[in-house]
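Internal ticket #5521
Category: modeling
Description: The requester needs a full-assembly model to guide mutagenesis choices. All entity lines are attached below as received. Residue total reported by intake: 560.
Assigned to: D.W.
Attached entities:
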Amino acid sequence: MTFAERLARAQQSTDSLLCVGLDPDPLKLPKDLLADSHARFAGAAPLYAFNRRIVDATADTAAAYKPQIAFYSALGAEDQLVESIRYIRERAPAALVILDAKRSDIGNTAEAYAREAFDRYGADAVTLNPYMGEDSIRPFLVRPDRGAILLCRTSNPGAKDFQDLLVDGLPLYARVAQRAAGHWNQHGNLMLVVGATYPREMAELRRAHPEVSFLVPGIGAQGGDLEATLAAGLDARGAGLLINSSRNIIYAGGGAPAAIREAATELRTAINRQRAKPQA
Amino acid sequence: MTFAERLARAQQSTDSLLCVGLDPDPLKLPKDLLADSHARFAGAAPLYAFNRRIVDATADTAAAYKPQIAFYSALGAEDQLVESIRYIRERAPAALVILDAKRSDIGNTAEAYAREAFDRYGADAVTLNPYMGEDSIRPFLVRPDRGAILLCRTSNPGAKDFQDLLVDGLPLYARVAQRAAGHWNQHGNLMLVVGATYPREMAELRRAHPEVSFLVPGIGAQGGDLEATLAAGLDARGAGLLINSSRNIIYAGGGAPAAIREAATELRTAINRQRAKPQA
């Protein structure tokens, strides 16, 4: 099955465009985690314990999980990332796993990063930075069953520093999308990161690239507006998006399981309500 | 001591601008490594064993070592990277350690990556990708004793895809240099990656940024010309560069210690010969 087919199947079987970000800050773990009967590993493996709780609470609402590798590698906790992904496969087998790593390098180094994401961690897709150009992305595109998700227009304030610069009248981020979606995407396994904080830009990208799916950060904590994002980014089938939320879900109610479940369910429902409306 | 002072001291005390890249490909390890008396760890820790050999052979010629983290993380060999850096500190205490990671992310994620590079691995500097803008780089610049090394004009073929695009008549890579060297570099701890394969571009960057040091990949295996690179990139003091070589040194003579030593010594000597000439 190709990556595009796996993505469509994940979205259909969960009836969801929701991606849950697994960014477990060790300073913000739920206070009750150590006492939780689920979390018997909590002392030795607190990130894994927290992720188990999140996956248990969202297994029926998430189309994808997106662990941010920095939170594990800062602590030397790669084993907890491996265990968390194993748990997702067991508990939420329909969901995709996106390794958020924003890798960028060339040649045999890029190949090593592809092995890290796809073989060591078994991720379905990995986020990548386009600055180094085609030969830095190619090693992630050669497996049709895995996805390469390119930074395009990100949701942070600094995105304007370079991504918005005009090249012959077109912003750099649009050039990135143009080149990547056109020349690089032979297997249909390329996605773009398009932040929720810039719905006008997202609408332009959707018009230019009706067939490409977007991974959308920036809903919630970063201030992106859900309704505007969906109006701008949904494709003709009412899909084409994975809407990521991290902090607003995993720290809901201080990280209590019921609050996590409710936050995820509410967001999925709000997304699906708008998907049901006729698209412009 | 600031990062700029540490860099200058490393270059002076080793009388060298040479940076040795520690990119140990597990498929290309020296055949005799397991029999080497130095390498009693070779079976369990082959990357570390190979790095010990390289460091032993180059400790008096390298101003810096640059381990490429992908080669360790692809294998789950983070512990061998930690051990390799510990060994560099012991055997080559004057040399800087540059973690080649090309990280790019924002906010608390960038802070986690800074902890990975500077605290977990104890690196003196880390390579970074500028695409996400100022807030993605800031967390790496706040420690004046550590360096942030930004991709500017890289040495690979794909560099032209985006880095060379003209923004109001100036290539994107020059905009990156302008903004980073100008606004972001309050502590003088920012360097730029400028590939050896484009000496004309390097000369322009040197004229525009006489005070900024460049990390230079692409000599040797990637075809960069040493003489042209030095003519283009040396600053008024005959420094301002770290010239990286990886494969041409570490696989010299199939990775035999004497051949590694000779390759490193030759490159340092060739660099210093040109440094001794009056600069244009």
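Resolution: model delivered.
Comment from assignee: The domain at 3-276 of chain A is CATH 3.20.20.70 (TIM Barrel).
Ticket closed.
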